[in-house]
Specification:
- The protein is an alpha/beta fold.
- The chain has helices at residues 20-35, 48-58, 85-88, 100-103, 110-123, 135-139, 143-155, 160-165, 184-201, 203-206, 222-226, 243-252, and strands at 9-13, 41-45, 64-68, 94-97, 126-131, 167-170, 210-214, 233-236.
- The protein has an eight-stranded parallel β-barrel with strand order 1-2-3-4-5-6-7-8, surrounded by six helices.
- Helix 1 (20-35) packs across helix 2, helix 1 (20-35) runs parallel beside helix 12 and helix 7 packs parallel to helix 9 (184-201).
- The N and C termini lie close together (12 Å).
- Bound molecules: phosphoenolpyruvate.
- Phosphoenolpyruvate (PEP) is lined by residues 13, 171, 176-177, 214-217, 235-239.
């Protein structure tokens, strides 16, 4: 599935779902699945209020780590409703920026996404940068241009060390939460575009950047995505809320492909 240098990564984005009790149960079951696949790195991105209790319940050497679905770019100040990377850093390993529900639902610009990425590097956590084209952009033949623009805006002039920890999630907007996943061929083409842009930034570091596919990944299609050479795992929304489905996806990312 992946170059031996890149550890497969499966992230579950819970969005604004789960009660606290459900979150604990889902994290426990995901932790059991992750423990059976130590070759796969597994993370959960719960709603903000569950981050601290879950991180505390999972303990110091958990098989599954917690992440944030979004962060503020600023360190502190009069930003009602925002949460700073510095506040989250003690509890999380991953910080997602640029998810399409932030770009399109909340009008986040490429410049804002870049500023949020700066914040992740400031607190030394693993940044997960989501990029992807809308259906309209794909139909207009602009998918490659859009993804290239989003990546360049976020990554130009970064030091090579920044690319080594980076995770890029390629998520075609039309595939998110729709049940209409991209094909492994489309995904392969776009992952190749991402990898070659990373190469232009830094040849060696680009080989260490993990690229995930996201968009209606399920237990029964995950293996085909993870078999794409440039894909190193998945960013999973809906299916991460179903312990059995997410367990299948974690297994598909493992050595034997489930
Ligand atoms: C996502 O939220 O990033 C996502 C890919 O969702 P889903 O798996 O439900 O399409």
């Amino acid at each position: 599935m992946t170059s031996t240098a890149r550890i497969p990564l499966v992230l579950g984005n819970w969005k604004m779902h789960t009660s606290l009790a459900e979150a604990h149960e889902l994290a426990r079951m995901t932790g059991e699945a992750a423990a059976r696949h130590p070759e796969v790195e597994v993370g959960l991105l719960p709603p903000y209020p569950w981050i601290v209790p879950l991180a505390e319940a999972l303990g110091t050497e958990p098989a599954v780590r917690v992440g944030a679905q979004d962060i503020a770019a600023e360190t502190a100040g009069a930003f009602t409703g925002d949460v700073a990377a510095e506040m989250l850093a003690p509890y999380v390993r991953f910080m997602l920026v640029g998810h399409s529900e932030r770009r399109h639902g909340h009008g986040e610009t490429d410049a804002e996404v870049r500023a949020k990425l700066d914040a992740v590097y400031r607190v030394d956590r693993i940044p997960v940068l989501a990029v992807g084209e809308t259906e309209e952009e794909r139909q207009a033949g602009r998918a490659v241009d859009v993804v290239t623009r989003q990546l360049a805006a976020a990554l130009n002039d970064r030091p090579s060390a920044a690319l080594e920890t980076l995770v890029v999630a390629y998520e075609p907007v039309w595939a998110i939460g729709t049940g209409q996943a991209a094909t492994p061929d489309d995904t392969s083409e776009m992952a190749g575009v991402v990898r070659s842009l990373l190469h232009q930034l830094d040849q060696a570091a680009a080989e260490r950047t993990r690229i995930l596919y996201g968009g209606s990944v399920k237990a029964d299609n995950a293996r085909a995505f993870f078999a794409v050479p440039d894909i190193d795992g998945g960013l999973v929304g809906g299916a991460s809320l179903d312990a059995r489905a997410f367990t299948g996806i974690i297994a598909a990312a493992g050595v034997d492909g489930g």
